Amino acid sequence: MSPIFRIAIPSIVSNITVPLLALADTLIAGHLGAASYIGAIAVGGLLFNMVYWLFGFLRMSTGAFAAQARGGRDLREAHCTLLRSLSVALAVALLLLLLHPLWAEAAFALIGADAAVESLARIYFALLVWGAPAVLALYSLNGWFLGMQNARAPMVIALVQNTVNVVASLTFVAAFGMKVEGVALGSLLAQYVALVLALGIYLRHYRHRLPAVAWREWMRRAAFVRLFRINLQIFLRTLCLIAVTTGFTSFGAAQGEQTLAANSLLMQFFMLFSYFIDGFAYAGEALGGQCLGAGNRKGFVQLTRRLFAYGLGLALVFTLVYVAGGPHLLRLFTDQQRVVETALAYLPYTFAIPLCGFAAFLFDGLYIGTTQTASMLGSMAAATAMFFASQCLLPPGNGALWTAFLLYLACRALMQAALFGKLLAKFPNNSK
To answer: S-S: 134 plus which of 35, 191, 200, 411, CB 3.0-4.6 Å?
Structure first.
């Protein structure tokens, strides 16, 4: 099997488990006897997803540095990379635990849920916040596994975590009569089971293959400065992503609840495509970083060409699926006829999502793997500005909103394509 597919396929499987887990929690909450339980899980999940999303740099930077160390056959540095990342993850988790009362108050004030939902969401939040150390440490470990080209480990961890989550949540709810706290405890238990499994995989497969390192080696100031610089750039890029996502939702909500609901359904077309194309972006991270570590410019160029060939093929397949089956997917998502009718009017915009978006995802993977995060941040900032400027300049309406979103995706890709020569310049002139 091609190295690209050896990383992409397990990564896609891991990605697909994310919405399935959210669906399982919602299904359990939906049988607790009141709509407020569903709302509480949705609000609580939103709080954690938004915050944890910001710290996704732990996975990305760790994978990039590990891949580069692997490419340079520097197993000592690969080991140091993991230890540095875990130390940052645990420090951030401790900070989140210390500040979680302030975090909760600010978030609930911003969301403005009704009293019944907020009361239950606070119970859910108060329990699940203790999973922060496990979640952030898993980001580091999964990123490191990916950088070491072991995409099966994150896949197995995700499958086990989701299975434990569903079984434990059902047990706490059905056998012990718990409500929202049972769902939270099931998720919390699954997070720590996944962490133990990840540590077990590391100890079993890598402990004897990696050289021991003294704390002075992995605590080098220069290495942490570089790590924080890369992490900050990825963090700011994530803020731009959140700004666009929030802006899209806000602009749609201003046009009424039917438009908001329709856009939420149509955005699932983007999310579905992203779960698949992200698998190839992860391959770009791991293999691109390895090429840089090995000084293999020729291999990197070949990798880029193959990634884009696969990505274009995937985009064409999804475009055809959306054209042929888009209306059926909408009716699968909901039985609300008015929402479906509104969504159908804007469905053609989703046909352009794969072709406008695939290059941005793949470039992100290559830029992260080679730690060209400053260029990636600049591209994302320009694309974000393009989104908001387009929304202001185009004639009002939901069509303008979708046009702005497509321009944002295309701008990301075009900016990164323009800066690709700078990325290639990172390879030495005498590289292979």
So the answer is: 191
pTM: 0.93
Which of 173, 197, 219 is the endpoint of a domain?
219
CA 189 to chain centre: 22
Tokens 């700078």 belong to which residue?
422
Residues 210 and 264 in one domain: no
Tell me if residue 46 falls in helix, strand or coil: helix
Domain that holds residue 96: 1-219
Residue ranges with strand state E in 92-185: none
Specify whether 245 is located in the same domain as 145: no
Say if residue 111 is in the same domain as residue 234: no
As a whole number of angstroms, the distance between CA 73 and CA 273 comes to 35
Task: Count structural domains, the chain.
Answer: 2
- Residue 408: left if φ>0, alpha if ψ -120 to 50, beta else—which one? alpha
**Residues 210, 88 within the same domain:** yes
Residue 334 φ then ψ, to 5°? -155, 155
Q: How far apart are CA 209 and CA 410, in angstroms?
A: 43
Q: How far apart are CA 108 and CA 317, in angstroms?
A: 41
100 and 171 part of one domain:
yes
Is residue 363 domain-shared with residue 310, that is, in the same domain?
Answer: yes
Share of the chain residues as helix, strand and coil, in percent rounded to the nearest 5: 85, 0, 15
d(CA 109, CA 215): 43
Instruction: Judge if 396 and 328 occupy the same domain.
Output: yes
Residue 313 amino acid letter: G
- Residue where a domain terminates, one of 219, 235, 251: 219
The one-letter amino acid at 80:
C
CA 342 to chain centre: 29
**Whose structure tokens read 């955005």?**
267
Q: Say whether both 79 and 17 belong to one domain.
A: yes
What tens-digit pLDDT sequence spans the chain (432 residues)? 789 999 999 999 998 887 777 667 766 776 676 667 776 777 777 778 878 888 999 999 999 999 999 999 999 999 999 999 999 999 999 999 999 888 888 877 776 667 777 888 889 889 999 999 999 999 999 999 999 999 999 999 999 999 999 999 999 988 888 888 998 999 999 999 999 999 999 999 998 888 888 777 888 899 999 999 999 999 999 999 989 988 888 888 888 878 888 888 898 899 999 999 999 999 999 999 999 999 999 999 999 999 999 999 999 999 999 999 999 988 887 777 888 888 899 999 999 999 999 999 999 999 999 999 999 999 999 999 999 999 889 888 999 999 999 999 999 999 999 999 999 998 876 555
